[in-house]
Amino acid sequence: MPACEPSPVQTGDVLLSIENLHAHVEGNEILRGVSLRIRAGEIHALMGRNGSGKSTLSKVIAGHPAYTVTAGAIHYRGQDLLALSPEDRARAGVFLGFQYPVEIPGVSNLEFLRVSCNARRQHRGQEELDTFAFEDHVRDTMAIVQMNPAFLERSVNEGFSGGEKKRNEILQMALLEPLVAILDETDSGLDIDALRIVANGVKTLTLPTTATLLITHYQRLLDAITPDFVHVMAEGRILRTGDKDLAMALEQRGYDWIDGADTPQP
Amino acid sequence: MSNATQSQSWLDTLLQVLAQRSGQPAGQRAAQWAGARDWCWPTPRNEAWRFTDLRCLTQLDPARLHTRTAAPPWPHGLSQGSSRHVALQLDGHGHWRAPQGETPFWPHGLMPLPTEETTPGQVARTVISSETLPLGAQLNGVTPGPPLALQVSGADPVHLALAIQMEQAQAWLAPRVLLVLQPGARLCLSWHVAATAQAAVLPMVEARLGTGAQLEEAAIAWGCPGATFLGSSFVHQSPRSVYRRTNVTWGWGLSRDEPFIRQAQGQAETHLHGLAVARGRSLLDTHSTVFFDGPAGQLRQCHQALADGRGHSVFNGRVVVPRVAQQTDASQLSRNLLLSTRARIDTKPQLEIVADDVQCTHGATVSCLQDDELFYLQSRGIGREQASRLLQRGFCEDVLQRLPWAALAWSSLQRLLEIPVPDQP
Amino acid sequence: MSSAAAVEALNTTPYRYGFVTDIETEKIAKGLDESVVRLISAKKQEPDFLLQFRLKAYAQWQLMEEPDWAALKYPAIDYQDIVYYSAPRQKEQKASLEDVDPALLETFDKLGIPLSEQKRLSNVAVDAVFDSVSIATTYKQKLAEHGVVFCSMGEAVKDYPELVERYLGSVVPIGDNFFAALNSAVFSDGSFVYVPKEVQCPMELSTYFRINSDDAGQFERTLIVAEEGSSVSYLEGCTAPMFDTNQLHAAVVELVALDDASIKYSTVQNWYAGDENGKGGIYNFVTKRGLCKGRRSRISWTQVETGSAITWKYPGCVLRGQDSIGEFYSVALTNHYQQADTGTKMVHVGPGSRSTIISKGISSGHSVNSYRGLVNIGPQARGARNFSQCDSMLIGDQAAANTHPYIQSRQPEATVEHEASTCHISEDQLFYLQSRGIESEAAVSMLVSGFCRDVFNQLPMEFAAEADKLLALKLEGSVG
């Protein structure tokens, strides 16, 4: 893995390209031929029922060891992403905001954030930040998600409420400055205020040279962040792709009209 | 003469006396499965016997031992047999009889095993293959007498109530029970063992649980000063089997209870709940061992002990999780109430683990009654002494509420529960 | 990558302190009998009380049997195949550092413990012990200004015989156990600390033990006495060369805290642990005990145990003083074929005495890591309290973690609480860190040091970071 970035990204460049991806976990095939192309400057929303394979897709992109890819490919900026370790994917600029961030007792959040941020900076050929410089940096960044600096002193996610955990995820996104951010149900379990803060955070961090994939169940996140594309997943495939109106239609009519044979299509 | 030599000569006399009893030649039996040459009288130097003095047992006179029993005071309704229920009591010759003295009528799903199919220790050997048998089982093994060997089948639960009543001094009873539960079979077993005289009872239970079988065991064992209880049980569990054991012990001069459970291929459930109430000079000792020999086994264990007066409670809970036992989920708790300056608690929960993907926890607490609980009751107008009794009763109830009706019906238990609550000052 | 694979992928880095110093030593012949005990005493020109102490101990030792209750397996030790006295040859009286053999100074330089005036650690006074003989003690003068005595045991016997006679063996009696009896008979050197009344020792005191010889047993003796109202923090560090034979180390440490005194004793133990096949390494059979003699006295043990082939060690506190406090914070890490049977003994004698036990065991490779701890509440200890927490972390499915807490209470107005749990490095935790760009090895050691955080927080600041690094280093090469 070279320790520097390829040439800068232009709006419209293909960042992530997924072709006919098949993957299974513990012998069950979850992804059955997913294809998806994401360009710089785009916001994609991925919707679908529980168990349709949305979270699996996000974990496979991030490289979770429990999932085995049996066919297909993922290219990130032209490079074979599946050949990289999870940490190298993160360093290269692929970020996954977890649906259920784990608690890690004893490991200080501040130290974790610093090591992680420096790993990404080093990869981009930037100078690593020492403890003091980083602390200033992180405190500034925390303002984006209106997070109390007291959370820096605590162990990673330990005893955080659902909303605090999600803010911590967006904080990490802000520190790592990814090119592709996948946010897995970042909106679930948030109250209205927290949702607004998180949505604003995501909007602030989305640039013409980056792309975002929002995995969600609900319209309400998409009211705050307008997606360019909406994909509906079922049984391990993307069944339908449309624009923000598709999400609206789903909200009104449910998923049945997409995958159910008994209902006529609009 | 030193204690050790004294004990050794007591044991030699005992073995001679037992060898002369009718039944199979004891010498042969002993050699057969207890390993006569392995006899080693436990001393405090032996880790497993550090706190447990056997003097209460060796005060019996080997020359005067007998097997006489009394009629147990069966609770109303429990002694009657039915199509799903059988009640048995130990007679003066080591045979299990129905309360009216006749040969038992076996309900559907319960069948005596032919003698030729039962070898003493056949399950025990599969449960503790490499280790020497506990003292209680060894002494049981050299005492001649017929076993109660039953096969259990069918998904409808069968109820078996066993009672032993000892009222004459120098009684020496060593009942053996072998239970073979067919796959999916369900048995509710309740025990009532009582001693009101200087006597000894050494029950040994072996149970093999087939796939998906369920054994619910409830044991009440109470004695008096001078009486000794040396119990051992060996349970071999197949996958998806469930073993629940709830036992309540009090009053004995010496009680040593040693359950061994092996989840042969994991994937089974074991629930052990014990209550020991040591008052007077009672010494109550529980040494339990659970082996997991396969993945995804579960253990829930809670041992509660109360020590008052000069009472002494000993608990040693061993949980063994080898490499094959990934995904084991085991928890063990030892809760102790120490209520007097002359009472004693010795507890040692032990975990032995060689597997990385397991969830094992244990905990132990020793204290007297909590001040804030006492204060809460006092603030509601209850006197301190009375509040203390209420809390002690509550501590016992935690375990007692798990007992089935067949065990709760015994009046002896009511006596344990009637912790005298003095009038308020 | 799975956690097992991540751990497996780590490389074995060689033990950093494995070199041997080539130096002329004075050794006596192998073997032990009464004449050897007399010879050791004579070589050290000891007063008669000490010779009698040794002879009595030797007589007791001969009647004792090596303990076999610990979960340890090792070939029988041949006590006649050990050299009981070995010392680097140097001038009799070392008036200053200039008189110390440069090879020795260089050795300690290489170990990261510079002794010379220019390079020595600021705010840490060091007693450097080489093959059981103290070769230099820094900052003696500065300490003396505060009345604090910090010197080798040998010097203490000459300069403060009455203190030594009064306290030696007062906490760990001659016949306490097999190894303590052996140490009492043949102990070589060690450190002596005396803090007078109401003195707060102005700097960290530290003894650095270096084993160099491959056939000499190591038998140091450390004694720390804190007078009323005083306080001291002491740190012990240890390393040894790599030999493929085993060396016996049987030390005794005694601490005495009088009214309102406080002693904090920290150990970062990094003896050579043997190679990845379990060959070589130190057999560490150590008796450490503190006596909280006075009211409100406090003794705190903190240990980071990483490097013996065998560890047999139970630093404990006898809480005799009313309202005295005992603490034990331990991290024990075992890898490859290491075996550790370690824990503590908290003996509550005095009313109101309190103790806290936090033990973190990490087992990886084919190692066996056992916690063995005793909490004993005596009949007089009204209002005593103990809280224990023993957590084990297992890395890989070949390592063993055992927990054997012995809880004994004879006092109703006392409270004992014990908790133990087992955990492993979860795939999800590891993946979370990796997905933030942290490489797997770093992620594993981050998780392990997070697991140990409660204990590291107890180490003196100068050494906490060191312990963290040591742990990361030791984990490398652990087999998944």
TrEMBL record, chain A:
Pfam families: ABC_tran
Keyword Ubl conjugation: no
Gene3D superfamilies found in the cross-reference section: P-loop containing nucleotide triphosphate hydrolases
Keywords linked to the UniProt accession: ATP-binding, Nucleotide-binding
Lineage of producing organism: Bacteria, Bacillati, Cyanobacteriota, Cyanophyceae, Synechococcales
GO molecular-function terms, A-Z: ATP binding; ATP hydrolysis activity
Species: Candidatus Synechococcus spongiarum
PANTHER family attached to this UniProt entry: ABC TRANSPORTER I FAMILY MEMBER 6, CHLOROPLASTIC (PTHR43204:SF1)
CDD domains from the UniProt entry: ABC_FeS_Assembly
Protein name listed in UniProt: Iron-sulfur cluster assembly ATPase protein SufC
From TrEMBL, chain B:
Recorded superkingdom: Bacteria
Swiss-Prot/TrEMBL GO biological process terms: iron-sulfur cluster assembly
Every SUF system FeS cluster assembly SufBD core domain range: 168-395
Official protein name in the record: Iron-sulfur cluster assembly protein SufD
Species of origin: Candidatus Synechococcus spongiarum
Lineage: Bacteria, Bacillati, Cyanobacteriota, Cyanophyceae, Synechococcales
UniProtKB/TrEMBL annotation, chain C:
Record GO biological process: iron-sulfur cluster assembly
A Pfam short name: SUFBD_core
Domain SUF system FeS cluster assembly SufBD core: 209-451
Domain SUF system FeS cluster assembly SufBD N-terminal: 129-201
Family named by the database record: Belongs to the iron-sulfur cluster assembly SufBD family.
Protein name according to UniProt: Iron-sulfur cluster assembly protein SufB
Record organism: Candidatus Synechococcus spongiarum
